[in-house]
Design brief:
Blueprint (H helix, E strand, L loop, with lengths): L1 H23 L7 H6 L6 H12 L2 H14 L5 H24 L4 H8 L2 H34 L2 H5 L4 H54 L5 H11 L22 H11 L2 H8 L4 H16 L1 H5 L1 H10 L9 H9 L2 H39 L5 H22 L9 H25 L5 H20 L6 H4 L2 H22 L22 H18 L3
């Protein structure tokens, strides 16, 4: 089994690397436009594949299925509500982003407000990616792989700590090579290839899981047994005592999804690289269609694991790995491990590529060395990328012991998601709000959420109000505060967004109808499983 697992793992991983190299070997990796924005050449299949795979990693596969093990279908909100956010990206945000010809979100804030606002946003992004995003991708990946594979048997290493550090560093180094030597298009191509494997692998797990539920009598029989024995787990409406109460879909859960899919540099950088607006909109809306399938492989396996192993005393975040290890045939174990490594690499190298973009174009070129050549900017980005990668590899193993990976990630993300989203929205929708308002919102928003999350006695506020309702209240406070400052001390002149002329802004004719269909499908899915 070990030999078969190892051979299939190495074959699939090597195949993705080979195809990626063949497709991108003649790309421009020396200019900032080529390295950071793929030469603004991405078409909709690569945009959709890269968006999907940047989003999907082991904090999703392991964490969301772990949440489903505990709370059932209601946690599908993180997948399904994302579709609404993607429709907003396609129809509202993307046309405005591409009009400005920006490569980073902070660049938009520089254009709308001033260089100081851009610098604050840059620092917030870089700190968040270094301390939260990159380490948790590596840690959750290592935990997921240890659950799915017999790593002590494969490697001969018996120490859990040594295995954790070793797995983190191997995955981190491979991901760094992809991101730092290849640039955005290399990331996008490898993401798309891994995306195909992940979708296939995810559905294969559901197939074998339902077969296990029915003792081999068929998938539909397994589904019927699941519905009959665990009806409470198949309710789309979350209760007040669950991780995602239904009311939060309209407050914090919605806002976190909107930021993640419309303003998060790690995600939307591949949309900035769209060949034109029409290709970008097609790619974004195709991603929305794929996200509707997300609950099938990101939530249902957790419910299957609950049915099979609820009495075995396993931790929620170990449920998915336990399911994969027990139901997948040996000849597919290596393939799925390769797919999971691809998912980890995808999120890690995408976040790392975005980190180097934020540093190189905004801080290095904008502040440190304004006269830098393209070659100097790219080289500075690569050096900074290695520093960030090594820092993430050192921090990741220290995350051991978190109760819920996915819950921890969403809680930490809200600290910077909410302030940045409020500033971007007010910036795009208002003409007279001044830069001082944006600076106060960015710094004040992070400080308020951080105080209530971590500093007694402020933490007592969360005993009286749900976390997601709280961050929504902070969002409203920040928006109202900025608008008030805009009334009291407005800009001297109204801001008018200029067309940079870098991208063809002709919209896709099917964008609005496709967006309407996706929204209807979201409502239909919730209605179909409402208990």
């Amino acid at each position: 089994m070990h030999a078969l697992t190892l051979i299939s793992f190495l074959f699939f991983t090597g195949l993705v690397a080979l195809i990626t190299w063949v497709v991108t070997r003649r790309d421009d990796h020396d200019s900032t436009r080529g390295y950071f924005l793929a030469g603004r050449s991405l078409t909709f299949p690569f945009i959709a594949g890269s968006l999907l795979m940047t989003n999907l990693s082991t904090e999703q596969m392991v964490g969301l299925n772990g949440s489903a093990f505990t709370d059932g279908l209601s946690v599908m909100a993180w997948e399904v509500v994302a579709v609404i956010a993607l429709v907003l990206l396609a129809l509202f945000f993307l046309p405005r982003f591409l009009r400005s010809g920006i490569a980073t979100v902070p660049q938009l804030l520089r254009e709308r407000f001033d260089p100081g606002t851009q610098l604050i946003c840059n620092i917030i992004f870089l700190l968040a990616y270094a301390v939260i995003l990159l380490p948790i991708i590596l840690y959750s990946g290592a935990v997921g792989l240890q659950g799915m594979l017999d790593l002590p048997g494969l490697t001969g290493i018996q120490s859990d700590t040594t295995l954790l550090w070793g797995t983190v560093w191997v995955v981190g180094l491979i991901g760094s090579v992809y991101a730092l030597f290849g640039g955005l298009r290399t990331v996008a191509v490898s993401d798309t290839l891994n995306g195909v494997g992940l979708l296939i692998g995810g559905f294969v797990i559901v197939y074998f899981g339902l077969q296990a539920v029915s003792d081999g009598t068929g998938v539909m029989a397994g589904w019927d047994i699941l519905k009959q024995t665990n009806p409470d787990k198949l309710n789309s409406i979350g209760g007040a005592d669950q991780q995602v109460p239904f009311a939060t879909l309209f407050t914090g859960v919605f806002l976190i999804n909107v930021f993640y899919w419309t303003t998060n540099q790690q995600i939307i950088q591949r949309t900035f690289a769209a060949k034109n607006l029409a290709e970008g909109q097609k790619g974004v809306l195709l991603t929305g269609l794929f996200k509707l399938l997300g609950p099938l492989y990101l939530v249902i396996p957790g419910i299957i694991a609950y049915h099979l192993y609820a009495g075995d005393g396993i931790r929620a975040d170990a449920a998915y790995g336990h399911l994969v290890y027990n139901v997948l045939p040996p000849y597919l174990t290596g393939f799925f491990a390769a797919v999971m490594v691809g998912a980890i690499l995808s999120s890690f190298n995408s976040a790392l590529n975005s980190t180097t973009t934020l540093f190189s174009l905004d801080l290095y070129k904008g502040v440190i060395n304004k006269d830098a050549t393209d070659e100097q900017v790219v080289n500075a980005g690569k050096i900074f990328g290695w520093v960030m990668a090594i820092a993430a590899m050192l921090i990741a193993p220290m995350l051991a012991g978190q109760e819920s990976l996915f819950g921890y990630l969403q809680k930490m993300n809200a600290m910077y998601f909410i302030p940045i989203l409020s500033v971007v929205l007010v910036g795009l929708l208002s003409k007279r709000v001044p830069s001082i308002a944006a600076k106060i919102a960015l710094i004040g928003g992070c400080a308020i959420i951080g105080l209530v999350y971590f500093v007694p006695p402020f933490t007592g506020i969360l005993d009286a109000i749900n976390d997601f309702h709280f961050v929504a209240l902070v969002f409203v406070l920040l928006v109202v505060g900025m608008l008030l400052i805009g009334k009291i001390a407005p800009r001297a002149t109204a801001w008018v967004q200029q067309d940079s002329g870098q991208v063809d802004l002709t919209p896709w004719g099917g964008a609005i109808p496709a967006g309407i269909v996706l929204v209807i499908l979201v409502i239909a899915i919730y209605a179909a499983f409402a208990g």
